Amino acid sequence: MTKSSFSAHPYLLGFEQLDRLVERSARNDGYPPYNIEQSGPNAYRITLAVAGFAETELHITVEENQLMVRGVQPADAEGRVFLHRGIAARQFQRSFVLADGVAVLGASQENGLLHIDLDRTMPETVVQAIKINQNK
């Protein structure tokens, strides 16, 4: 079975980076669960279930069109004995690839949910006329 690639298509020129972005985003596991919703014509909201994490234990960064959310909890206190441990208390890293023109407006946390609001600015349509040079 051969792996298909965006950059291998003859009509898609300069999309090599898209292949890398798709590959990088496919590496995420299922924790923590999240929703992505459209909250307006050009507005989006990512909601992650981060029960048990304090604001100081969550880190949100954007670098090169990649939104990264990390959660780091301190090690369990000594002397705690769990009879059953069903609540996940582990570190996580969740990444989202943002399209050009998508900006993070802010983040808030309530009731164990982390909300990240995004906005997309629509680029202006540019029509460029190309002059044809005559060969002599």
Explain how this protein is built.
- It is a single chain.
- The chain has 1 helix and 7 strands, in the order αβββββββ.
- By secondary structure, it is mostly beta strands.
- The chain has a domain at 29-120: Immunoglobulin-like (Sandwich), CATH 2.60.40.
- The relative contact order is 0.20.
- The mean pLDDT is 84.
Q: What's the gist of this structure?
A:
By secondary structure, the protein is mostly beta strands.
Q: What's the main sheet like? A: 4 strands, antiparallel
Helix content: under 10%
- CATH architecture group name of the domain at 29-120: Sandwich
Strand order of the largest sheet: 1-2-7-6
Question: Topology, please?
Answer:
Layout: H1 16-25, E1 34-40, E2 43-49, E3 58-63, E4 66-71, E5 92-97, E6 102-110, E7 113-120
Antiparallel strand pairs: 1-2, 2-7, 3-4, 4-5, 6-7
Question: Could you list some keywords that capture this structure?
Answer:
136 residues, mainly beta, Immunoglobulin-like, 4-stranded antiparallel sheet, 3-stranded antiparallel sheet, 7 strands
